[in-house]
Specification:
alpha+beta, FAD/NAD(P)-binding domain, D-Amino Acid Oxidase, Chain A, domain 2, Helicase, Ruva Protein, domain 3, 3 domains, ten-stranded mixed beta sheet, eight-stranded mixed beta sheet, 31% helix, binds flavin-adenine dinucleotide
């Protein structure tokens, strides 16, 4: 971080929208600094349903622009990060009293044809065999279509790495406390564990997600052009309730839908809810009524009945949605709006709303809006550019085989986890290790020192939570003693690194 330099752009927020804009801008030759008050993806961007999807449901709300853009992005993003994003088939069990078959077929016709689709298969009808069906006897047929599943937090990290490799400075655990413009330049006050300091920038981008309006009103002392409504969404995780790699989209009597998604080989991810949230976005947590709601929908469909005792883990996030004054949280628009304002002729671009799926297009639109302020801005580039880990990545199976030959004493489950986390960058993570014994201390569940050191050195991981919850999903397996051992190791590692820097 250079406090004397005038950055072209300072981005507030290390969720998907902030890192997406930082990566796009840095790749166009701008000097960029991004600050994130916590860890990368520590809020909404790691609390999603982990889908790259067109949003079949949004067709009912006539969100054709959003659905068309999101549908087309599925294949663009799959090609950019094939290690993080994979095609998935979804089955909607038919419940005739909720939506008639003709309506669903019409929706799926649009879904198949609205956006460009070359790799993803189209939709079809399915009949459930009563002898083997997972569903209650009255559910006899369904509709099948394609969307994609994503590792949301790792998609954020991949974009941060790309921004960094194009010269951006990524500052995590660094809060922007205020900013003021004077003579076309922003002076941005940042605060981290070392203290408070200022950086200067030509353009300020407010990608603070749930904090977008709070940042404008409280930290910049300006008027926000839009209000947002915070809508809480929660998920529960249970041991896998069915074999196979298809997801289910379940309709409820209130016209909402809930997904049941195969998750990390061993689990089923169930969500989400939609309810108004008025509290602090830092402290959102699942409510008892959300748990009841999700269990009730599952139990209305599946023969296997779930209870609270089946729940291994839960998570919640808040969607920062543009307030379109709708009475129904699930009908509120999921589209994004970018608002360009100025303070003392210095531009401020604020991001309202959005989805993981549309982050790349959102970043591109942000750059189009900011073009007049940068005379030498390079053209659009992200549609065809691979994200880190996708370089020389033929496919996951191929890389798994290569690694199994290279490290025959490493379990296949670990090799698969590495491949879906790092893609071809797994070779960098491994460094010169050729045997399991060279990977160093094992903290449990095949998390070795080599990987921990790599995450700290290359992916801004600081705490055990960063590593277990966002860089991996090992938090679902680690016990308190294992976490304590990892914490102890990280404390010593950070101390050593601080001493090296000071020396
Ligand atoms: C339950 C749920 C399910 C969803 N499922 C999907 C899905 O399946 N597919 C999909 O495409 N989308 C989905 N979404 C939407 C998607 O997750 C969000 O649109 C997206 O993550 C928003 O990203 P963001 O960068 O705007 O916000 P965030 O990820 O919240 O990032 C904003 C960041 O700004 C930081 N920040 C705030 N103030 C400051 C400050 N002053 N200084 C420094 N940093 C600051 C915060 O710490 C935060 O990390 C879902 C959302 C929810 C809640």
């Amino acid at each position: 971080m250079d406090q004397h330099h005038i950055y072209d752009m300072v981005v507030i927020g290390g969720g998907i929208n902030g890192v997406g804009i930082a990566a796009d801008a840095a790749g166009r030759g701008l000097s960029v600094l991004l600050c994130e008050k916590d860890d990368l993806a520590s809020h909404t961007s790691s609390a999603s349903s982990k889908l790259i999807h067109g949003g079949l449901r949004y067709l009912e709300h006539k969100e054709f622009r959003l659905v068309r853009e999101a549908l087309a992005e599925r294949e663009v993003l799959m090609a950019k990060a094939p290690h993080l994003i994979r095609a998935m088939r979804f089955i909607m069990p038919h419940r005739p009293h909720l939506r008639p078959a003709w309506l669903i077929r019409t929706g799926l016709f649009f879904y198949d044809h609205l956006g460009k689709r070359e790799k993803l298969a189209g939709s079809n009808l399915v009949d459930f065999d009563p002898k083997t069906s997972l569903f209650k006897p009255e559910i006899v047929k369904g509709f099948e279509y394609s969307d994609c599943a994503v590792d949301d937090a790792r998609l954020v990290v991949a974009n941060a790495i790309q921004a960094h490799e194009n010269g951006a400075s990524i500052q995590t655990r660094t809060r922007c406390i205020t900013a003021q413009a004077e003579q076309n330049v922003w002076t941005v006050q940042l605060q981290n564990t070392q203290g408070t300091f200022a950086v200067r920038a030509k353009v300020l981008v407010n990608a603070a997600g749930p904090w977008v309006t709070e940042f404008i009103q409280q930290d910049l002392k300006m008027q926000a052009a839009y209000s947002i409504r915070l809508i809480q969404g929660s998920h529960i995780i249970v041991p896998k309730i069915y074999a196979g790699d298809k997801a289910f989209i379940l309709q409820n009597d209130d016209q909402r839908i809930v997904f049941a998604i195969p998750y990390l080989d061993e689990y089923t991810l169930i969500g989400t809810t939609d309810q108004r949230y008025l509290g602090n976005p830092d402290q959102v947590d699942i409510t008892e009524s959300e748990i009841d709601y999700l269990l009730q929908i599952m139990n209305a469909h599946f023969q296997q009945q779930l209870t609270r005792q089946d729940i291994i883990s839960t998570y919640s996030g808040v969607r920062p949605l543009c307030d379109d004054e709708s009475d129904n949280p699930s009908a509120m628009t999921r589209d994004y709006t970018l608002v360009l304002t100025q303070q003392q002729h210095a531009p401020l671009l604020s991001v309202y709303g959005g989805k993981l799926t549309t982050y790349r297009k959102l970043a591109e639109s942000a750059m189009h809006q900011l073009k007049p302020f940068f005379s030498k801005l390079k053209p659009d580039w992200t549609a065809k550019a691979l994200l880190p880990g996708a370089e020389n990545f033929f496919n996951a199976e191929h890389l798994v085989k290569e690694l199994e030959q290279y490290l025959p004493d490493v379990p296949k489950s670990l090799v698969e986890r590495w491949v879906h986390s790092y893609g071809s960058r797994v070779w960098r993570m491994l460094g010169s290790c050729e045997h399991v014994s060279a990977l160093g201390q094992c903290f449990g569940h095949d998390l070795y020192q080599q990987e921990v050191d790599y995450l700290v050195a290359n992916e801004w991981a600081v705490s055990s939570e960063d590593i277990l919850k966002r860089r991996s999903k090992l938090y679902l397996k680690f016990d308190q003693d294992q976490i304590a051992r990892l914490d102890e190791y990280l404390l010593a590692l950070h101390k050593r690194r601080a001493q090296e820097i000071a020396a």
